[in-house]
Amino acid sequence: MSNSRKKYSKIYDQYVKKIYRFIFLKVKSAEIAEDLCSEVFLRGWQAYKSQKEIENIQAFLYQIARNLLADHYRQASKTQLVSAEYAPISDPDQDLEEKSFIQSDLERVKAGLANIKEDYREVIVWYYLDELQVPEIAKMLQKSEPTVRVLLHRALKALKNELE
Amino acid sequence: MTQEQLIRQLRKLREVEPSHDWVIFTKKRIFAQDLEVKKSPGLLSFLPLFRYKLAFAPIVSVLIIIGLFGFAENTVPGDLLFSVKQMAETAQVAFSSQIEKPKTQLMLVNKRLEELSRIAEDNLVRNLDPAIKAFQASIAQATKDLIEMESTGSEDPMIIKEIVAETQKMTENKQKVESVLGTIIGDTEELDNAISQLKRQTASYLIADLSQRTLSEENAELLNEAKQEFEEGDYDKALEKMWLLSNK
């Protein structure tokens, strides 16, 4: 295995779960999340082997994921696809099952995250789930650190409101 | 719900993970795709021409064949690519008309002699035996073609002139090579007989042809001299005079 492949293999192991989660919390479908996540790492690898010098690989991978998510939603809005997840379910038993599932705290938080603003969702995931530091988030969003702190505060408030 | 409770619940979302199998499979797929991409370019893909392999395949093949034949042109018997050169020569003879075949074959005999001369000069001992054999094979074929030409009775004075010129050149070359090598490289008696017979036939044909024409006094005298030399068996001189007459 070449040196760059070895290095990228380590990068993959380090970030694959974070990137998957970042995508999954937005698309809410494991299959789509898997497709987009593998595309992120494929594009990342192509860029990595040609450039070698990527200043911040984490920020770079998140940026690819954000771009892919934007493309995904642009495409989805054009084709007007109705996800099975959002389709009305006629089976009354299934409705009951789903209700009980949604009532769980985790599902509520997930649903709440999906409903808040894009910026808010991103900073919450990065800060509370991926444990990125404020300066790192500031760099990725190309914003100042105080702005990111304010954004985090507002994001948490928005999510709380969404859940209440 | 307090802020602390919310943060606690958010952190629980860390449990969201892709399946272990998918993680391994995706990693393999990414690097496998990379290998496929690596395999696709050919050996000479750095040249723009070779990026369009299929489209350029016939052109490249032709260029390679031309290059091969060009390179083989400088080979001598015993070299790896000499057979390629021989293939080209066989094609050259095959495409010659029946009347031109002996002349083409004699040109090849001279070629073999030139190669022998090069081998002797460069002291290429390994190539000497194959070169002598190639010369002998070539002279046998030339003799065969000349005998065939006599039997068909085709007498084109210009071709005969060229055959005689090639034969003279061959005799000179052969003597030169033999003096360098210090040995006789092949028996040309049969070939000499065939050429002599051909000369006689040609001279006889030319005498008959010129005798029917109206000639000036000077030319008539030249023809008489040629006839006399023909009767004495000196066909070379008789032919020389008649060619002179024909070209006047």
Structure description:
The complex is a heterodimer of chains A (164) and B (248). Chain A is mainly α. In chain A, 80% of the residues lie in helices and 0% in strands. Chain A is built from eight helices and no strands. The relative contact order of chain A is 0.10. About 10% of the residues of chain A have low confidence. With 248 residues, chain B is mainly α. Chain B contains ten helices and no strands. Chain B is elongated. The N and C termini of chain B lie far apart (126 Å). The relative contact order of chain B is 0.06. The model of chain B has no long low-confidence stretch (mean pLDDT 78). The chains are: A mainly alpha (164), B mainly alpha (248).
Question: Could you give the topology of this structure?
Answer:
The complex is a heterodimer of chains A (164) and B (248).
Chain A: H1 3-27, H2 30-51, H3 57-79, H4 92-102, H5 105-115, H6 118-129, H7 134-141, H8 145-163
Helix pairs in contact in A: 1-2, 1-3, 2-3, 5-8, 6-8, 7-8
Chain B: H1 3-12, H2 20-39, H3 53-72, H4 82-94, H5 101-122, H6 125-152, H7 157-181, H8 189-211, H9 217-231, H10 235-246
Helix pairs in contact in B: 4-5, 5-6, 5-7, 6-8, 7-8, 8-9, 8-10, 9-10
Give a quick rundown of the structure.
The complex is a heterodimer of chains A (164) and B (248). Chain A is an all-alpha fold and 164 residues long.
Our Rg estimate of chain A from Cα atoms comes to 18 Å
Distance between the termini of chain A: 52 Å
The structural class of chain B is: mainly alpha
Structural class of chain A: mainly alpha
Quote the distance from N terminus to C terminus of chain B.
Answer: 126 Å
Strand content of chain B: under 5%
What is the mean pLDDT of chain A? 80
Bulk shape of chain A:
globular
Please tell me what the overall shape of chain B is.
elongated
The arrangement of helices and strands of chain B along the chain is HHHHHHHHHH
The helix count of chain B comes to 10
